[in-house]
Amino acid sequence: MENIKNILLTTLTIVMFSIMASSSAFAQQSGIKRTELQRYDISAKGRETIQVRIDFEPGAAFGEHSHPGEELIYVLEGSLEYIVEGKPPVTLNAGDVLFIPAGTVHAARNNGKSTGVELATYIVEKGKPVLVMKH
């Protein structure tokens, strides 16, 4: 019985550290505020959708990263520059959209003088970290 308790405790500890590690990828970067709006399983087996509002203060940047699924971006306010692997940088204004394929390295920056805001919708593999920073 004691052995089963130790195994369960070890398993729980590993799960908690995994959750903390994946959450740290979403940790706030200076000048960037991420607000998760909703998260739901979808009909595609093993996938979930997550919507996040991301506010970029003037001059704030989110470094190179990727996702284990697709990202759909809708710029709500301001102007944001996106650098997507293999493509020239693009600046999007409020009302513009961008699709980023699964696993594609990309980055975002607010080069404007006012806050830039995007709505990011992720369709990702459930159980994987939603965001993987490039080292």
UniProtKB/TrEMBL annotation:
<dbReference type="Pfam" id="PF07883">
    <property type="entry name" value="Cupin_2"/>
</dbReference>
<feature type="domain" description="Cupin type-2">
    <location>
        <begin position="54"/>
        <end position="115"/>
    </location>
</feature>
<dbReference type="InterPro" id="IPR014710">
    <property type="entry name" value="RmlC-like_jellyroll"/>
</dbReference>
<dbReference type="InterPro" id="IPR011051">
    <property type="entry name" value="RmlC_Cupin_sf"/>
</dbReference>
<keyword id="KW-0732">Signal</keyword>
<protein>
    <submittedName>
        <fullName>Cupin</fullName>
    </submittedName>
</protein>
<dbReference type="InterPro" id="IPR013096">
    <property type="entry name" value="Cupin_2"/>
</dbReference>
<feature type="signal peptide">
    <location>
        <begin position="1"/>
        <end position="27"/>
    </location>
</feature>
